[in-house]
Design brief:
Blueprint: H1 2-12, H2 20-33, H3 37-49, H4 71-88, H5 152-157, H6 175-183, H7 187-206, H8 213-229, H9 234-244, H10 253-260, H11 268-284, H12 288-309, H13 336-361, H14 365-385, H15 395-402, H16 407-431, H17 440-458, H18 475-479, H19 482-486, H20 506-514, H21 523-526, H22 530-539, H23 543-552
């Protein structure tokens, strides 16, 4: 009869029924008869309510503790449950049937809501705690029920009296309770929520079959919750890492990518193996729109790492600064030592993905936009978050944008070079001569090469002019050769990418010339009006070119 009794208790146990002496009796029974599924099933309910006092290791596989071998007996139990609910709660809050839990295998409940509805843990009008009951560390205190909270002012007024839900996962549906979770110092709440998320997502996401509306609704709530608390949930990191190993790149794509952006800091070797490589496989085998989604995800991850995990060190101190240790779910580990390495390695990895994507998609405009967004982020990390400048965007991306057929690309890449220049000056001013970082000579030479080549191309009309000054080592000189340029059979290739004749800017040049007098409408006379052309481009929201010329060219005319 022991399995049947445990099954019955499993169905009828409420939060207020959990007591320490009952847990001790079950553990003593388990030590005598060994690990039995029916005992583990009853202990799992106790752990669901109070994970801090029940240390039970559950198997990661789908587990059914009780089997309904007698359908008639199951029907009798449901009738008893319905009659008990009708007697205990005749008018107050509606209680979901307890028959939902354990009477059927989990995979047969796909049509039910995964996130429980909001319901108070105890109805004080119906439950009376005897004074002579055994005293334990678990107590029931009177308070205000959640159903009586309608506004944020109600929450502030009764924050000390508020009664938490019977199922803590219900706070995912209630924004006011999420405020309470942030203010609470009780780790029991976050432990219960973590246990519920791990159990539910493992069963419905990893072991589930395809997409369904219930899981999508749950993921919507989880994403909204992580955005609200401005950090990731550690248990979700483990779930996402395991799910990426079997993910087809289509199911719940937007939710998975948003959860990745909130993942905690980890060594880059682990990040590459668990997150980046599965994403790269999806990236290489998907359409351009999926590539853009993946790039945006990684850019958000890089931004969060730089904003939350990296703390700018004090130049007057020899010790590393302490990161922000305030966390909702668990105290953050000191990741300052590996933060900079992970950030720099992630920048290099995103750079390679951009190169690969532009090559595959032949400079698609959407992908070019997200590539330039990466370049703008990488060039302003020092100004925005104080991340040291240790590398610059690869030459492949710079020159692919300079010679692109999109005016947006030409303008924004000029702005990227200006941002790098400002970032270097700011970092050099802070560090001084004594604090000069290792590798800055290479960075300066690389940026000087980019700047000279763009000036030669857009302003001086001397693109690919290797013979003019063979001793000057520019970036284009290392990437191409005069023979390779000559084989393109482009006439006047030195001036083909100038400010007046660049294919991406030709339409703007023509519209500018139409506004000039008749004698100045030819390209030959337009050279003396380049300053006005820059103003015309700026009015067309192409400020990057004008900013570049103002920064690196003393005289524009």
């Amino acid at each position: 009869m022991c399995p049947y009794i445990c099954h019955l208790l499993h169905l009828l146990t409420r939060r207020e029924d959990v007591r320490l002496f009952r847990i001790r009796r079950l553990l003593n029974l388990q030590s005598r008869v060994g690990v039995q599924t029916y005992i583990s099933g009853l202990l799992s309910i106790y752990r669901l309510y109070y994970p801090n006092i029940v240390s039970l290791v559950m198997s990661g596989r789908r587990k059914i503790f009780f089997k309904n071998t007698d359908t008639a007996w199951a029907q009798v139990i449901r009738k008893v449950q319905a009659r008990a609910n009708a007697v205990q709660r005749p008018i107050t809050v509606q209680v979901p049937s307890l028959a939902v839990r354990g009477t059927k295998p989990r995979h047969k409940r796909a049509k039910l809501q995964l996130v429980p509805s909001l319901q108070s843990a105890v109805d004080q009008t119906d439950v009376t705690v005897p004074t002579d009951s055994i005293q334990t560390s678990i107590s029931i205190t009177a308070g205000m029920k959640l159903e009586q909270i309608h506004t944020f002012e109600d929450l502030l007024t009764n924050v000390d009296r508020l009664e938490l839900p019977m199922q803590v996962a219900a706070l995912l549906r209630h924004p006011h309770l999420q405020h309470l979770l942030l203010c609470s110092s009780d780790r029991l709440l976050t432990t219960r929520l973590s246990y519920w998320l791990h159990h539910t997502l493992q069963e419905e996401l990893i072991l589930g079959n395809g997409e369904n509306d219930a899981v999508r609704e749950l993921l919507d709530m989880v994403v909204t919750f992580t955005d609200f608390i401005q950090e990731g949930v550690p248990v979700l990191d483990d779930i996402i890492i395991r799910y990426l190993m079997v993910w087809n790149g289509r199911d719940y794509r937007s939710h998975v990518l948003q959860l990745i952006t909130r993942m905690g800091m980890m060594p880059f070797s682990d990040l590459r193996e668990c997150i980046l490589e599965p994403l790269r496989q999806i990236y290489c085998s998907s359409s351009v729109y999926v590539k853009c989604q993946v790039l945006y995800c990684l850019l958000q991850l890089l931004t969060n790492y730089s904003a939350l995990e990296w703390v700018t060190p004090d130049p007057n101190s020899n010790t590393l600064p302490l990161p922000n240790t305030t966390s909702v779910f668990s105290p953050k580990a000191d990741t300052q030592a590996l933060a900079l390495t992970t950030i720099q390695e992630l920048i290099a990895y995103i750079d390679k993905l951009c190169v690969l994507g532009l090559t595959q998609e032949r400079d698609h405009a959407f992908l070019m936009h997200y590539t330039l967004s990466y370049m703008e982020l990488a060039s302003t990390l020092g100004q925005r978050f104080g991340v040291p400048l240790q590398q610059v965007v690869s030459a492949f991306l710079i020159y692919r944008c300079v010679f692109a057929l999109h005016a947006m690309a030409v303008s924004r890449v000029c702005g990227v070079i200006c941002d790098y220049c400002e970032q270097y000056r700011m970092m050099a001013k802070k560090a001084g001569d004594a604090g000069k970082q290792e590798g800055w000579d290479f960075i300066v030479n690389t940026l000087n090469g980019y700047t000279l080549d763009i000036c030669d191309t857009l302003w001086r009309s001397k693109a690919f002019s290797f013979h003019l000054n063979p001793k000057r080592s520019t970036m284009i000189y290392h990437l191409t050769s005069a023979d390779a340029v000559a084989r393109t059979r482009v006439a006047n290739f030195h001036t083909a990418f100038s400010l007046l004749q660049h294919p991406a800017l030709m339409g703007f040049t023509q519209s500018f010339l139409k506004q000039q007098p008749d004698e100045d409408r030819s390209l030959g006379h337009a050279h003396k009006h380049r300053g006005k052309l820059l103003t015309h481009l700026q009015e067309r929201h192409l400020q990057g070119v004008d900013r570049f010329i103002h920064t690196f060219i003393r005289s524009k005319d």
